[in-house]
Design goal:
Length: about 100
């Protein structure tokens, strides 16, 4: 039922994220490539990989979830972030859903 009252921020993010393929981090000036974007079960997610990172590499997972009009925004970074941001966002989302 919460899909009917989706916050405009989540909807705007689903439209804006696909436009970001590469970016430069403002503070470090490092270059990043954004991977495939997924929008499944109320969670928007992707992984960005730092270009020219030393071995074993560096990446960041990002997940934006919507539950009961609550936005959950998770960023995880490591040499292999995999789906860590999505897992954390889903754990928090389950808690939000259980409380409302």
């Amino acid at each position: 039922m919460y899909w009917r009252c989706r916050p405009a921020f989540f909807d705007a993010s689903t439209q804006q994220w696909p436009a970001c393929h590469q970016y430069t981090h403002t503070q470090s000036e490092s270059q990043w490539s954004v991977g495939q974007i997924s929008n499944a079960n109320g969670t928007l997610s992707t992984t960005a990989t730092q270009q020219n990172a030393g071995a074993p590499g560096w990446g960041c997972g990002r997940a934006l979830a919507l539950r009961n009009n609550v936005i959950i925004d998770i960023n995880t970074c490591s040499n292999n972030p995999a789906d860590s941001a999505v897992k954390i966002a889903n754990q928090i989302a389950a808690n939000v859903s259980a409380r409302w």
